[in-house]
Design brief:
two-stranded antiparallel sheet, disordered N terminus
Amino acid sequence: MSGVDPLTYTTTIAQASNTTDTSPPTMSTDLADLLLRMEDHDIIPSCLSAERHKPRDFLLHYMGCEQFFQREEYLASLNASQVKQIEAKLQRIESLRNAIFNDMGDGHILVQNLASSLKAWKATREFQEGIKRVRQLRTMHFAVNGAAQKEVDSLVRARDYNPDLDTNAYLIRFRNGRPVRDIADSRFHEQFPSYRISIHDLMYRMEEESPLKYASPSPVS
């Protein structure tokens, strides 16, 4: 899920102009100041952070900062390894969604409740008035309305998915007291300092296969 939902801006924008006023919508001073301060964000900010920052982590930037209509362009600017990691993350998200949706227990009920709540929320007067103003604001700044995340295939079939095998831990290797930045082991994903590995691989492998050990005699601290 990318960025902030449009309704995040509804309250601020609705307060900034009288809902019965037919004049063009205006922004509050606070919102205008926020937009100007976010120098590396869009004029319509979608980033999860209100603080200034450059893309320090390409994965977080793609997921949390880029709006749907911007994602393909940003993806094209990355190298093949980074693109592969993003696509793997999107597939994992889809697998989790499918697993919850197809759960015949509490998971399925929660999905139904969420869908019902979302439908009811979008039918409210507040949403209809607010989203109209949000779309007007986006159009004023050449942002695309109605863009959606591209569809991706699930990593596994829903009936084969086992959440216990999909739980990950973040891990940093050390050699002689120094962090190891490059790990060739294919069981490690992403990049330093955010390497992650399956808990199953980390905890339940035979000792000689443990990712906590190096192939060389050097121990891992």
